[in-house]
Design goal:
alpha/beta, 6-stranded mixed sheet, 3-stranded antiparallel sheet, 24% helix
Length: 162
Amino acid sequence: MIYDTIVVGAGPAGSSAARRCAQLGLSTLLLDQAIFPRDKLCGGALSEQAISYLDFELPAGITERDVYGARVHFGASCIEIRKPYRVAVTVSRTNFDHLLLKKAEEAGAKTLEGRRVSALHCSHGWVEVVAGGDRYCGRIVIGADGFHSVVARYVRRKHSKD
């Protein structure tokens, strides 16, 4: 099968992209090297603006704290800003990312967990994605696989050490 879209990486960006592609009627495959729910050490905060873009309510238990301001320390300096209204919420990335993966599945995206992408092979009109020893073909590949992106190695130069 040749998918319309293959999304590599099921974090917030990848799961959201896969969900939107599936909602638009595209056959969509979402690949991630982890098995969800998975631990994610990266911090989780959603601004009110980001929440406004969601087309679903965040279920009870996803948000951990309401945020009304921030305090930033830099050397001997400190800046604090407080608002009378909520500006953000904090979330557990483990729970939030799992929710977004499930939302992508509900929209029709096929998800395959525990599949580490190791290579891409481009041809005329499609891309072959090698993951976990298997091969998947897609017309478009979306790279949402983070800082050490395998997909990025195929579409841009390496970052310089500078």
